[in-house]
Structures are given as C-alpha cells and as structure tokens.
C-alpha cells in the first residue's frame, strides 16, 4: 500500500476544477488550522449591532457564550418566560433581563434578536420582532405551518428585515468538501444516500415539549429540517416520496421517523430515532457513487472517509479539494484490467483507493465556528445588502415544506 499525507487547507486555491466552492469556506482566512479567529474580516464596519436573546435555555445560552467574543455585536438584553432563568443569565452576562419577551422586543436600541425558544412560539415572537423593526435569527423550524412561515417572510420583506433559520451545517467545512466531491464527479454520479441519526433522549423527560407535537411539530419539523436543507444543498431539488413514524410502546412519544427522498436522479433515506443514552448518540451519512462511496461521521461532521476506483487525474482533484486528507492506494490496477463497466458505462481507472480526513478541531469548536460564521454572514448582509448570504429565508421555508409533507405521509 502507498500512503500520501496531503497538506492542510480544506479549500481550493489557484485551481479551476469543474465544481463550485461554497462561500462558507471563505469565512476562514486561509489559515492552516481553523481557529476561532479565522472568520471574515468585518473591520470595514465600525458599528456593532445591539443584540438580544429570547430563550435562556441551554442552547440559547450556548449561543450567547459563542457570540459573546464577537466585536460585531453588543449583547444588551436577554428574556425568558421563566423569570429565574432570565435573571440568572442576565446577571451572568451583565445585561438587562426580562421575563416578558415583548419588553425586550420593544426596546428601541436592539437591532438583532435571536429566538431560541420552543417551535410553537416562533411565529408570534418572530412577527412581533419584525413589526418592531428587529432583524431575527430564528432557531429551527421557522414556524409550525407553511401559512405562518410565509406570512413571516412576507412581513419581513415589507419591513426590509431578515429572519433566517439557524441552519449551521452549511457553515461546516466538511459539508463543502462533500459538496465538491459530488460536483466534481470524482467518483462518477451519486446514486443513493442515507442518513442514520441514532440520537439520545437522555435529556428529554416524558413531559418535555419535544414530545408534544403541538409545541415541537414532531421530529420531522423540529429536527429533520436541518438534514432536508443539507441534502437539498448536496443533491439539488428535493421531494418526499414516502414517510413513516413509530410511537414508543405505552406512550404518546413518536420517537422514530423515516422517509425516502428524491433529488433529481438520487434517492436518499433518512432515519431519526431518539432513544439512545448520551454516550451512544451517533450519526452517519453514506453516499453511493458510480465508482465508490463516501461515509461522513457526526451530525456536525468532523471526519469522512472515501473508497473508490479512480484515475490519476481524479486523485489530483480529490487531493486538491481536501489537501490535508490521507490517501492510501489499496491497489494499482494492472493495465490489462483498467477498463471495466458499471451502470452500463465504460470506466477506465488506474487505482483503487481509500481516502480519509479528520478535522484538526473537535466537534465543539467546529460547531462553535459554524454558529459564529452563520451570525457573521447575516450581519454582513445587514451591513451590506449586496452581500450574498449562504443561508437565506428561503432555506427555512423550503425545509419546512419537506418536513410538513413527511409528517403528512407518515401518519
């Protein structure tokens, strides 16, 4: 076997390969390692935005901690209907706190509000924020119905306000490496993909709002929208062909859902189950191509592996897309055997390879960078409307449409 250890930066430089590069990779300023300082340079903007958080639960506070070092915002207030939580977090960050979110929304000095509350509250809070002239970063889903979501977007457009959903996956570098692998056709055309999400329910008590579909919308709407958006990015236009769900025995908890999607010529299966201990929480994507396959690990992807048969030009493309991966040549294919057939096509290859990549950063830092870069992307648009955002309002609406269709088919 031959081993090749490839450079460092997961982006293409000084090359014009037959694929596109998502701008999310350019949120890292060419550094060899993706550190917390490697984000877009917003030095052209001298005024920070006044920022408020609604929802002082664990994720809202996580985001507040993640955003707190950014010079582009000034955190000025937090709110939660649980007065104890609002007071504790307000005091922790040294800002004003409210147990009535409307009081925060009505403050004249706030420019941008992060809504990190249960899904059934997103519509009312979002509408109030828009009417008060506040830009909004909304946790998923945008709303529980398409009518509510479209009303929010129409109102936001009238008020010249943004209200994107926090789809962080498009800001993770490995997501773009996989996108470029698909677009480059380095393994031929994609044929099939699946996502297996074996999620933990250890922190979800039986009376948690997650299990109440009137509050959460259920797994397809509350959770799977992330992956509807991701697969639409990877494979193109998406529609739901079939869906199913299962209720846990002797409960009303719908804890497992499954659906089949079609993206042009690619079929994909998505399974989400919330039934594992924390220590066993795990997720895997697998993509089958005409001449190989790719496995992506983690819902926040931090590693992937590739197996396939390729020629030397395809190896060059692959190593350009992901310079710090490790390439292993499993087999040099004899000249007399280099022509073969698959899917009705003539294929000529020279090597059978295994390629693997692991982020130099752990999941925690990759996740934090993605969250920060999503916010910075939106701020850049607020400051400069000519900026092209990676996530826009349409992503939230399109993912919700797919989730609602899956819910309809699953019952």
Tags for this model:
single chain; 411 residues; alpha/beta; Dihydrodipicolinate Reductase, domain 2; Rossmann fold; 2 domains; ten-stranded mixed sheet; five-stranded parallel sheet; 12 helices; 28% strand; disordered N terminus
Describe this structure in words.
There is one protein chain. The chain has 411 residues and is α/β, with parallel strands linked by helices. The chain folds into 2 domains: 2-29 and 170-369, Dihydrodipicolinate Reductase, domain 2; 49-163, Rossmann fold (3-Layer(aba) Sandwich), CATH 3.40.50.720. Helices cover 32% and strands 28% of the residues. The chain has 12 helices and 17 strands. The chain has helices spanning 58-67, 83-93, 101-105, 122-131, 146-159, 173-184, 213-216, 219-222, 225-235, 312-321, 363-383, 393-410, and strands at 2-5, 49-54, 73-79, 96-98, 112-115, 135-138, 190-200, 238-247, 254-263, 266-276, 282-289, 292-297, 303-310, 326-332, 339-342, 345-348, 351-358. The strands form 3 sheets. It has a 10-stranded mixed β-sheet. Strands 4-3-2-5-6 form a 5-stranded parallel β-sheet, with helices on both faces. A two-stranded antiparallel sheet has the order 15-16. A hairpin with a 2-residue loop joins strand 9 and strand 10.
């Amino acid at each position: 076997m031959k081993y090749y250890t490839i450079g460092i930066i997961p982006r293409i430089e000084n090359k014009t390969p037959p694929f596109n590069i998502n701008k999310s990779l350019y949120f890292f300023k060419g550094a060899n390692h993706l550190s917390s300082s490697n984000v877009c340079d917003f030095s052209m903007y001298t005024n920070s935005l006044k920022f408020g958080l609604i929802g002082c639960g664990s994720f809202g506070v996580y985001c507040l901690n993640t955003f707190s070092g950014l010079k582009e915002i000034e955190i000025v207030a937090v709110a939660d209907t649980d007065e104890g939580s609002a007071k504790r977090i307000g005091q922790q960050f040294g800002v004003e706190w409210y147990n009535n979110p409307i009081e925060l929304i009505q403050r004249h000095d706030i420019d941008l509000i992060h809504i990190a509350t249960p899904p059934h509250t997103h519509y009312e809070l979002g509408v109030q924020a828009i009417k008060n002239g506040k830009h909004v970063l909304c946790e998923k889903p945008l709303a529980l119905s398409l009518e509510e979501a479209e009303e929010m977007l129409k109102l936001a457009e009238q008020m010249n306000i943004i209200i994107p959903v926090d789809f962080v996956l498009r800001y993770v570098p490995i997501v773009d490496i996989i996108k470029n692998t698909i677009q480059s056709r380095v393994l031929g055309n994609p044929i099939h993909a699946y996502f297996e999400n074996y999620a933990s329910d250890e922190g979800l008590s039986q009376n948690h709002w997650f299990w109440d579909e009137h509050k959460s919308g259920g797994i397809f709407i509350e959770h799977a929208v992330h992956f509807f958006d991701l697969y639409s990015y990877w494979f193109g236009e998406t529609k739901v062909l079939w869906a199913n769900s299962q209720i846990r025995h002797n409960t009303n908890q719908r804890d497992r859902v499954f659906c089949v999607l079609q993206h042009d010529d690619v079929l994909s299966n998505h399974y989400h189950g919330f039934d594992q201990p924390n220590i066993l929480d795990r997720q895997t994507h697998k993509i089958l191509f005409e001449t190989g396959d790719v496995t992506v690990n983690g819902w926040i992807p931090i590693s992937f592996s590739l197996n396939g048969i390729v020629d030397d030009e395809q190896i060059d493309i692959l190593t350009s897309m992901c310079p710090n991966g490790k390439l292993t040549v499993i087999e040099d294919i004899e000249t007399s055997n280099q022509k073969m057939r698959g899917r009705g096509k003539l294929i000529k290859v020279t090597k059978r390879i295994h390629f693997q990549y692991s982020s130099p950063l752990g999941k925690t830092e990759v996740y934090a960078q993605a969250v920060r870069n999503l916010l910075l992307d939106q701020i850049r648009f607020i400051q400069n409307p000519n900026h092209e955002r990676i996530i826009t309002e349409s992503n939230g609406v399109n993912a919700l449409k797919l989730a609602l269709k899956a819910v309809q088919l699953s019952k």
